[in-house]
C-alpha cells in the first residue's frame, strides 16, 4: 500500500484492519486509542507503540453507539483509564480499558420503563456529570451515583408530535470547556440545542439557544475554546459550519468549511480541532486541514479512501481512520456482489 505524505511530510506509522472502523478517540493523555469496530467490539490500541492492540472489549450485542473518555484519564494514575459507552440494548457503561471490565453503569429509561436507546453520551469537563441523548429526550446522571436514578431527565420537545424544540434522535453531545455546565446537543432532524445543566430539571427543560444547522441531520457538535463558537457537521453534507452563540438570532453560520468530496452515504465523518486554530476532517477521498478563523482550506491530502474519523489529543498528536464499504459488481449478472473493505488507522504529528 502506497502511503501519502503526512501532515509533516511523513507518517509515524499506519496499521490496516480487516473490520470497518466506525470511529476513533484518543485518550486525553494520548497513551491509548479506542477504535469502535463495525463487528460490534471496541479495540484498545497503544498509539505510542505502533498501534499495538492491548485489549478488545465486547459488551453490547448491537455494537457501540457512542463513547467518551474520562476527562481526567492519566495512565500514571491507577484506576483512571475509564471510558463510557452507550448502546441500544444495555445501560450506559463505564469500562476500565486496562482490565476490559465494566466498573459501573447508569440506566436511562424510556416511557415504558425499559432501557432506552441512547445514541450519544458525554462526560462533563469535570467528570462529575454524564449526559446521554435518545429519542426526543436527554438524561443527566451524577457520576458518583450509578444506577437508574438520573439527576434530571427531560423531553427536548414540549409534547409528542410537536414541531418545536429539539426534535428527533439526539445524535451528538459536547460540553463547553469550562465549569459552566453548558452543553450542545445535535439531532438527526437537523437542529442544535444549547442547554445549561445547572438549571435543567424535570420541570425546566428549555434550551437557551436552538437553531437549524444541517438539513440531513447533525452528526457532530463541538465547542471551540472561546466558549461562544460551535462547529457542526451533518450527514451527506459538503459543509462544516461555525456558529457564534452571540449572533445566533441571525440563524446563519459565521463560517463554512467546504468539503469538495462530500460523503454520499449516512456514514458519519468525524472532525477534530487543535489549540492553535486548525480544523481537521475527512471526505470521501481526502484528509482536509482548514484554518478555523478564516475558513481557508490549507491542505488536502488525497488518500483514495474515505477518512471516517479524526482525533487529536492534548499534546497535538494526531490520529485518523479510513474505510468504508465498497461493492464491486461483476459483469456476469449471475455472480453476487463482493464487499471490499480497506480500513486503516494512522498516527502522525502536526507540523
What is the secondary structure topology, with strand pairs?
Layout lengths: L12 E5 L3 E6 L6 E5 L4 E5 L5 E6 L8 E4 L12 E5 L5 E5 L4 E6 L13 E4 L5 E6 L2 E6 L9 E4 L14 E6 L6 E6 L3 E6 L12 E4 L5 E6 L5 E6 L4 E6 L10 E4 L13 E2 L4 E5 L3 E6 L5 E6 L4 E6 L4 E6 L3 E3 L9 E3 L2 E7 L2
Antiparallel strand pairs: 1-30, 2-3, 3-4, 4-5, 6-7, 7-8, 8-9, 10-11, 11-12, 12-13, 14-15, 15-16, 16-17, 18-19, 19-20, 20-21, 22-23, 23-24, 24-25, 26-27, 27-30, 28-29
Number of strands: 30
CATH class, please? Mainly Beta
Mean pLDDT: 86
Helix content range: under 10%
SS-derived structural category: mainly beta
Oligomeric composition of the shown chains: single chain
Q: Please, how many helices?
A: 0
Distance between the termini: 24 Å
CATH fold descriptor: Methylamine Dehydrogenase, Chain H
Estimate nothing, just give the exact number of structural domains.
1
Strand content: 35-45%
Largest sheet at a glance?
A: 4 strands, antiparallel
Q: Mind telling me the C-alpha Rg?
A: 20 Å
N-to-C order of helices and strands = EEEEEEEEEEEEEEEEEEEEEEEEEEEEEE
Q: CATH superfamily, please?
A: YVTN repeat-like/Quinoprotein amine dehydrogenase
Question: Order of strands across the biggest sheet?
Answer: 1-30-27-26
Shape: globular
CATH architecture: 7 Propeller
Amino acid at each position: 500500500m502506497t502511503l501519502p505524505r503526512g501532515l509533516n511530510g511523513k507518517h509515524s506509522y499506519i496499521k490496516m484492519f480487516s473490520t470497518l472502523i466506525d470511529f476513533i478517540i484518543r485518550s486525553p493523555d494520548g497513551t491509548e486509542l479506542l477504535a469502535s469496530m463495525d463487528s460490534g467490539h471496541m479495540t484498545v490500541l497503544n498509539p505510542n507503540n505502533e498501534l499495538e492492540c492491548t485489549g478488545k472489549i465486547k459488551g453490547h450485542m448491537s455494537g457501540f453507539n457512542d463513547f467518551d473518555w474520562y476527562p481526567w484519564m492519566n495512565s500514571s494514575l491507577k484506576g483512571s483509564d475509564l471510558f463510557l459507552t452507550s448502546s441500544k440494548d444495555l445501560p450506559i457503561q463505564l469500562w476500565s480499558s486496562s482490565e476490559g471490565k465494566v466498573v459501573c453503569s447508569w440506566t436511562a429509561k424510556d416511557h415504558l420503563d425499559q432501557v432506552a436507546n441512547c445514541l450519544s453520551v458525554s462526560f462533563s469537563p469535570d467528570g462529575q456529570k454524564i449526559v446521554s441523548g435518545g429519542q426526543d429526550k436527554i438524561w443527566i446522571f451524577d457520576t458518583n451515583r450509578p444506577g437508574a436514578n438520573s439527576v434530571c431527565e427531560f423531553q427536548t420537545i414540549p409534547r409528542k408530535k410537536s414541531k418545536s424544540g429539539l426534535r428527533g434522535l439526539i445524535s451528538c453531545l459536547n460540553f463547553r470547556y469550562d465549569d459552566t455546565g453548558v452543553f450542545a446537543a445535535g439531532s438527526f432532524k437537523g437542529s442544535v440545542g444549547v442547554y445549561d445543566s445547572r438549571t435543567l430539571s424535570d420541570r425546566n427543560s428549555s434550551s437557551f439557544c436552538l437553531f437549524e444547522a444541517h438539513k440531513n441531520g447533525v452528526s457532530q457538535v463541538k465547542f471551540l475554546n472561546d466558549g461562544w463558537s460551535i462547529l457542526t457537521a451533518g450527514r451527506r453534507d459538503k459543509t462544516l459550519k461555525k456558529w457564534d452563540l452571540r449572533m445566533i438570532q441571525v440563524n446563519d453560520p459565521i463560517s463554512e468549511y467546504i468539503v469538495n468530496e462530500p460523503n454520499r452515504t449516512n456514514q458519519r465523518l468525524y472532525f477534530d480541532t487543535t489549540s492553535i486554530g486548525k480544523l481537521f476532517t475527512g471526505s470521501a477521498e481526502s484528509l482536509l486541514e482548514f484554518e478555523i478563523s478564516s475558513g481557508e482550506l490549507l491542505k488536502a491530502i488525497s488518500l483514495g479512501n474515505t477518512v471516517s474519523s479524526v482525533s487529536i489529543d492534548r499534546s497535538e498528536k494526531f490520529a485518523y481512520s479510513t474505510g468504508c464499504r465498497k461493492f464491486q459488481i461483476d459483469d456476469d449478472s449471475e455472480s453476487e456482489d463482493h464487499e471490499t473493505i480497506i480500513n486503516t488507522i494512522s498516527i502522525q504529528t502536526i507540523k
